[in-house]
C-alpha cells in the first residue's frame, strides 16, 4: 500500500449557509486511481477544488502531497495536474501554444517545454493537429488536449473533474484508454464522475457521495458485493403500471432480496437471475420485457439512496 | 532561473498579442496618427497660420496637440485592455485566469501580471507615437523620452480602477458606457484640443479631477523640455496615487471573483 498523497479528515466546505462538503474522510494512496461517484451537486467538484488548492476549506483537516493547501497552495499546485470540468483552453491559440503557455505558468524553461510538448502531443494523439486552432477541435480532442496540458509539469497527482462528461461513446473510450495508460505508468489519478461505467473501468477505489456526504467506500467490486446481489432482474410493465413492491415481494418465494421501483421499471435484486426471471414471467401479471444483468455500481447507488444517479 | 510568478501570465498575454496585434495596431497607432495629421497638422495650419501662439503656451497648434494625443492614446489603449480583456479572461469562454489559478500562480500575482501587461501595452503605444510625432516636428526636446513613463502611468491610472470593476461584471454592456460617457468626453475636454482654461469653471474642475488632464500637462512639459517642477510633481503623485488605489481595489475584486 503506497503512501497517502491526499488525506482528508472531517473536511468541510460551506458557501454561506450551504454546505457543499459536510465533513468527509478519505485518503488517496500513491499509484491508485481514486474516484468520487455521485450525482450533480453532491459536492464532488467542491472537494476537487479543495484538493486542487484553489479553494480554502471551512473546517477539518486536509493534506495534499504532505502539505496543507491553505498554507502551501503554490507548492502543491506546482506538483498537481488539473483537468477542470469545463475545458478552459484558449480557443484562439493553437494546440501547441496552449501547451506552451500553460507550461510557462509552471516556470518550465522553453527548451525543456518544447521537448515535453512533443511527448504530450504524442501521448494525446494530437501531433498532427499541433498547429490547429483549438476552436476547430472536436469535444473529444479538446478534452484530450486539456488532459495533455494537465500533464505538462509531470504531476505527482492528476485531478480529473468529470473527464468524459458530454463526449460521445467513441471519444469516451479513447479517453479511458489514455487514462488507463497513465495509470499503468504509475500516475495517481483522482477523478469525479457520474458514469458507473467510468468508475468501474478506471477506479481501484471509490467513494460514493450524496448530498455533501460520503455514503460508501470501497473498490467497485467490494461495493457491489456489499450492497447489491450478484444479479439484477429488470422487469418493465406496460400501461397498467408496475404492481406494488409488496405484492412483488410476496410473489418472490424468497428468491428476491430486495425490490426497487424506478419509474416504470422494477428491479429485483437476486442471486439467481434466470430462475427469478422465469418465475415472474410464468405467474401473475407478466412484464412487457425482462432483462437479467449483473449487479453494478448504479445498483449500489440506488440501494444506498433509493434514487437514480443521473438526476 | 524560473520566471517570477507575477510575470508568468505574460506568456499568455504575449501569445494573445501575437495573434491580435494587426487588429490592435489601428487603435494604438493609426487612429492617433490620423488625429495628428488632420487636427494637429491640418486644422493647426489654420490656427495662427501654424505659428506659435501665446494662448497655446507659446507653441504652435501641432505641438500643442501632439503630447496630449500621446496621453490620450495611452488612456484609450489601457481602457480597452482593462475592460474587454479582463472581462473575457475571467469568464469561461477563454478561462485564462482559471487556468492560471490551477498553476502555482496565485490570485494576487494574476492581478499584478494583468495590470503590468496593460502598462506594457500603454508603453508600446507611447513608444510608437513618439517617433511619429517627432517626424511631424512636434517634439521640442529630448526630454520627450520621459513620456515613456508618463504614457504607462496615465494608462494605469485609468486601467486599475476599471479592471477592478470589469472583473466583477457578468455582461459587457457597461463597457459601452465607459467608452461613451467617460472616455469620449475626456478625450475632447481634457485640454487636448484647446486650453482647459476655456472651459466653464464647473467643467474645468471635473477635468482636473480626471487623470487625463494631469497626463496631458506632464506630457507637454516633457515634449517641450520645460518643467514646472511643483506642478509636475503634483501631477505625477496624482497619477501614481490613482493607479495605486485602483490596484488595491483590483486586488480585492479579483480575489472576490476568483477565490472560491
Describe the model.
The complex is a heterodimer of chains A (about 300) and B (about 260). With about 300 residues, chain A is an alpha/beta fold. Chain A folds into two domains: about 220 residues, P-loop containing nucleotide triphosphate hydrolases (Rossmann fold, 3-Layer(aba) Sandwich), CATH 3.40.50.300; about 70 residues, 2-Layer Sandwich (Alpha-Beta Plaits), CATH 3.30.70. Helices cover about 35% and strands about 30% of the residues of chain A. Chain A has eleven helices and 13 strands. In chain A, the strands form three sheets. Chain A has a six-stranded mixed sheet with strand order 5-6-7-3-8-9, sandwiched between helices. Chain A has a four-stranded antiparallel sheet with strand order 11-12-10-13, covered by helices on one side. In chain A, strands 2-1-4 form a three-stranded antiparallel sheet, with helices on one face. In chain A, helix 3 crosses helix 4 and helix 5 packs parallel to helix 6. Helices cover about 70% and strands about 0% of the residues of chain B. In chain B, helix 1 packs antiparallel against helix 2, helix 2 crosses helix 8 and helix 4 packs antiparallel against helix 9. Chains A and B meet through helix 2 and helix 3 of A and helix 1 and helix 3 of B.
Number of strands of chain A: 13
The interface involving the most residues is between: A-B, 32 and 26 residues
Kindly provide the name of the CATH class of the largest domain in chain A.
Alpha Beta
| Biggest pleated sheet of chain A | 6 strands, mixed
Taking all residues together, what is the mean pLDDT of chain B? 93
Number of helices, counting only DSSP H or I runs of 4 residues or more of chain B: 9
Our count of domains of chain A comes out at: 2
**Dominant shape of chain B:** elongated
Summarize the structure.
Chain A has 311 residues and is an alpha/beta fold. Chain A contains eleven helices and 13 strands.
Amino acid at each position: 500500500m503506497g503512501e497517502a498523497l491526499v488525506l482528508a479528515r472531517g473536511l468541510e466546505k460551506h458557501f454561506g449557509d450551504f454546505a457543499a462538503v459536510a465533513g468527509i474522510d478519505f485518503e488517496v494512496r500513491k499509484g491508485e486511481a481514486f474516484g468520487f461517484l455521485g450525482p450533480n451537486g453532491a459536492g464532488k467538484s467542491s472537494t476537487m477544488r479543495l484538493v486542487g488548492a484553489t479553494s480554502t476549506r471551512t473546517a477539518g483537516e486536509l493534506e495534499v502531497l504532505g502539505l496543507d493547501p491553505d498554507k502551501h497552495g503554490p507548492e502543491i499546485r506546482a506538483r498537481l495536474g488539473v483537468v477542470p470540468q469545463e475545458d478552459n483552453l484558449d480557443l484562439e491559440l493553437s494546440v501547441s501554444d496552449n501547451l506552451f503557455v500553460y507550461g510557462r505558468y509552471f516556470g518550465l524553461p522553453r527548451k525543456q517545454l518544447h521537448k515535453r510538448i512533443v511527448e504530450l502531443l504524442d501521448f494525446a494523439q494530437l501531433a498532427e493537429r499541433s498547429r490547429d486552432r483549438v476552436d476547430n477541435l472536436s469535444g473529444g480532442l479538446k478534452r484530450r488536449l486539456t488532459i495533455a496540458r494537465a500533464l505538462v509539469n509531470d504531476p505527482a497527482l492528476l485531478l480529473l473533474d468529470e473527464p468524459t462528461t458530454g463526449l460521445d461513446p467513441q471519444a469516451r473510450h479513447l479517453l479511458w484508454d489514455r487514462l488507463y495508460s497513465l495509470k499503468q505508468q504509475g500516475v495517481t489519478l483522482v477523478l469525479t464522475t457520474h458514469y458507473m461505467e467510468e468508475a468501474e473501468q478506471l477506479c481501484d477505489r471509490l467513494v460514493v457521495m450524496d448530498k455533501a456526504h460520503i455514503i460508501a467506500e470501497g473498490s467497485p467490486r467490494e461495493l457491489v458485493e456489499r450492497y447489491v446481489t450478484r444479479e439484477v432482474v429488470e422487469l418493465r410493465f406496460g400501461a397498467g403500471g408496475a404492481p406494488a413492491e409488496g405484492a412483488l415481494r410476496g410473489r418472490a418465494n424468497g428468491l428476491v432480496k430486495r425490490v426497487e421501483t424506478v419509474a416504470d421499471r422494477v428491479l429485483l435484486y437476486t442471486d439467481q437471475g434466470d430462475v427469478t426471471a422465469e418465475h415472474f414471467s410464468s405467474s401473475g401479471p407478466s412484464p412487457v420485457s425482462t432483462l437479467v444483468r449483473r449487479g453494478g455500481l448504479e445498483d449500489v447507488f440506488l440501494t444506498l439512496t433509493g434514487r437514480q444517479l443521473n438526476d | 532561473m524560473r520566471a517570477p510568478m507575477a510575470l508568468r501570465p505574460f506568456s499568455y498575454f504575449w501569445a494573445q498579442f501575437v495573434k491580435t496585434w494587426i487588429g490592435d495596431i489601428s487603435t494604438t497607432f493609426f487612429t492617433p496618427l490620423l488625429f495628428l495629421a488632420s487636427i494637429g497638422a491640418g486644422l493647426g495650419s489654420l490656427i495662427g497660420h501654424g505659428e506659435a501662439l501665446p494662448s497655446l503656451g507659446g507653441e504652435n497648434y501641432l505641438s500643442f496637440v501632439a503630447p496630449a494625443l500621446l496621453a490620450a492614446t495611452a488612456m484609450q489603449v489601457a481602457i480597452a485592455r482593462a475592460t474587454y480583456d479582463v472581462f473575457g479572461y475571467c469568464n469561461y469562454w477563454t478561462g485564462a485566469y482559471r487556468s492560471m489559478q490551477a498553476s502555482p500562480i496565485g490570485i494576487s500575482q494574476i492581478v499584478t501580471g494583468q495590470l503590468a501587461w496593460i502598462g506594457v501595452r500603454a508603453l508600446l503605444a507611447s513608444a510608437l507615437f513618439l517617433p511619429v510625432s517627432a517626424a511631424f516636428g512636434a517634439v521640442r526636446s529630448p526630454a520627450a523620452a520621459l513620456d515613456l513613463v508618463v504614457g504607462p502611468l496615465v494608462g494605469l491610472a485609468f486601467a486599475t480602477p476599471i479592471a477592478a470593476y470589469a472583473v466583477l461584471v457578468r455582461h459587457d454592456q457597461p463597457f459601452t458606457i465607459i467608452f461613451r460617457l467617460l472616455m469620449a468626453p475626456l478625450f475632447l475636454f481634457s485640454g487636448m484640443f484647446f486650453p482647459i482654461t476655456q472651459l466653464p469653471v464647473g467643467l474645468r474642475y471635473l477635468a482636473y479631477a480626471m487623470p487625463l488632464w494631469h497626463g496631458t500637462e506632464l506630457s507637454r512639459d516633457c515634449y517641450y523640455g520645460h518643467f514646472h517642477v511643483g506642478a509636475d510633481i503634483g501631477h505625477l503623485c496624482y497619477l501614481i496615487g490613482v493607479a495605486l488605489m485602483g490596484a488595491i481595489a483590483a486586488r480585492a475584486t479579483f480575489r472576490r471573483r476568483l477565490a472560491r
